[in-house]
Amino acid sequence: MLRSFETVSELSEALNLTDGSPYLLPIHYSIRHELHEMFPEAKCSIYGYPYDSPQLWMVIRRNQFTRPHVFMASRTQLLLSESEIDAFLMLALPYLLELSEFNARILGIQLSTRMNELFSSHFDFSAPSYLANYFLVNESKQRLITKMHIQLADGYEFVELDPDVDSDAVASTWKFSSAGDRDQFAAKIRRMPSIGIRTYGGELASFTVLDASGFFNNQFTFPEHRQRGLADRSELRLCQKVDSDAVASTWKFSSAGDRDQFAAKIRRMPSIGIRTYGGELASFTVLDASGFFNNQFTFPEHRQRGLADRSELRLCQKVIEFGLYPLKFVEHENTAVLARSARSPWWSAVVDEAGMPVTQDHRLVYRLAPPPELATY
């Protein structure tokens, strides 16, 4: 039987049950933010299997402004049998059939593969699959990052992202953006840590936004501001702790509603921005409601100046202050950032019990209509 965690006492128990595993950190942070009502624009339903001692977990996050997200993860990667995974998935299926569409974020190839195989008669999995490696900053590196003073290239400054102003830019750079993501990113900026970099002229150059599940959700440096160290410094500064229109407009998954969802993220979660001295937003990083770095972006004219790296570090500082491990998922197709993260002195790749990198499968899933009648399981 799939166990549902709904009351304050049940959510507190779920928080304890998901502690101590790097594979469950996005689930753990989703529960944390639901328990403490930290992100009302991203209400979560929490499920675990087996009932008495859950090893497999699902979070259905119903975003206020955009399509739902479904997170699945397990306490271990290679120690679960296929029959255990199948039982969990078949018990989760009725809850998923309530959704006409959702963004699936499945941690672990075995889990995502079985989901695709078992649910193929119920859901359309033909949308592109974005595989990503999982990175975090461990505790010893966190202590070093919190003590750093992060310097930007001349002409840039760190800024707090404004959910009402920067959400469009954040959502527009996110390749998954859809209807409502602007507002959902605004909520992330309000609720979670984020970071932005602007030029002295006021132009947004780079940013990183955190997801409600705790990972770095959208990191972006506009092309003209690249190669200036902005991304690393933005990432670091956010690891220690951006304007919603700009943030939403840069997200490759943006759709209707993403501007408002990003605005909510900027209001609720730590974020960071870098502006020029003239006030232009140059770079930003926004945190997702689940705690990961959600949208990191540096505008093209500000690239090659180190903004993205510095923005990421500054957000790391804010994320640590917020009580989270800095987390991010880097897509395999994003070869430059994947290589930069792999050689980073701060980020560590999360690996399975055999020492292989853990992969997240992120894709848009549609329910087939009408849904077939469910077999008894």
From TrEMBL:
Keyword tags: Acyltransferase, Transferase
Example of a GO cellular component annotation carried by this entry: mitochondrion
Ranges in coiled-coil conformation: none
UniProt organism field: Ascaris lumbricoides
MF terms (GO), sorted A to Z: glycine N-acyltransferase activity
Name of this chain's protein: Glycine N-acyltransferase-like protein
InterPro entries, A to Z: Acyl_CoA_acyltransferase (IPR016181), Glycine_N-acyltransferase (IPR010313)
Assigned protein family: Belongs to the glycine N-acyltransferase family.
Domain of life: Eukaryota
Major enzyme class: transferase
SUPFAM superfamilies the UniProt entry points to: Acyl-CoA N-acyltransferases (Nat)
Catalytic activity, EC: 2.3.1.-
